[in-house]
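Project standup — Tuesday

K.O.: blocked on the structure for the chain from last sprint. Re-posting the sequence here as requested.
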Amino acid sequence: MVLEGTVLVTGEHGTGKSSFAIEGGDPASMLFIDDDLKGRSTINQIKKDSIKFGRYVDFIELTKGMKRLDIHTAGRKLISDIKPGQFSVAIWDTWSRFEETCHSYVQAHPNEFRDPDGWAAMGKIRSGEEYKEARIYEANLIAELQSKVPLVILVSHLKNHYVNNVATGKQIPQVSKAVDRVCSLRMWLRHNPYGLTPIGLVLKNIDRKITQEGMSRLRTVQVLPMKITPQDGEFSLWDSIERYYNEPFGLRDTALPHEVPDDFEMSLITGTLSPDQKLSWLHALQSAKEDAEEEELLKGEAIVDAWNSGEFEKKKDLADHLGIPVREVLAALRE
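H.V.: unblocked you, prediction finished:
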């Protein structure tokens, strides 16, 4: 199996994301950029086992004490310094911190992305434009990296998911939509109750072009099922992926029981909320609404008490003292 492109691997803590990335090729021909702020147990074990990478970069140490823009410059140099064919695999573990610096770069160099009169004058709208350009710029950086290295593996932790500024109880990969677009394969790793090799949920699938007997046209078939459960003798998810690559799942009529996600796993794959998460979010939303109403009520009472104290001759003086708009003072005193 020769897999090329960009792969995102994410999942809960301790599911083997770094191990999955390292198992994707020969370490001797790998570039490993280590920016995992949450732990380095896998790398520490590899060092103890005297396994050598083609090049190992401690990005945390390299950027220690740097501001965002300087961190971006350091990461950008790593990409630009790679010579085509120098490595067979590039791993960036984790991608999230460097990704965030793309927005800082756009803010610092706006004329590289648009003409001066091409940006909105209103700050809020311009901020949205900057984030849009940052995502395009990020995608171009990943594409540049992948043009030099056949297989790029980006590792991501998870972050909380919000709807209307209220946490849903769901978690999502800590990456931007740019990563979603450029990846050829996206995997969510989960703990395997039956062994050390994790289960893989396929967020974005790969395909193969095949020819069938009696047909002159190519056919596109899905390689992987939505859920990859390692079988006997498979000590890495890459072993499972290779099995499916040689015998694509898409050529079968039905899925086997161990290839079918449960309801919760399906919610991770589709990006929807499970019934329990929906209920949790609705309760959190109601609680946030009640907290906001209580805060407004207490603010109104504070305004009335301050005015009745006789300390302020004008409502504007009271507004300036409290640091709130005059309209809020007027509204509270009308009630």
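K.O.: great, moving the ticket to review. The chain has a mean pLDDT of 87. The chain is about 45% helix and 20% strand.
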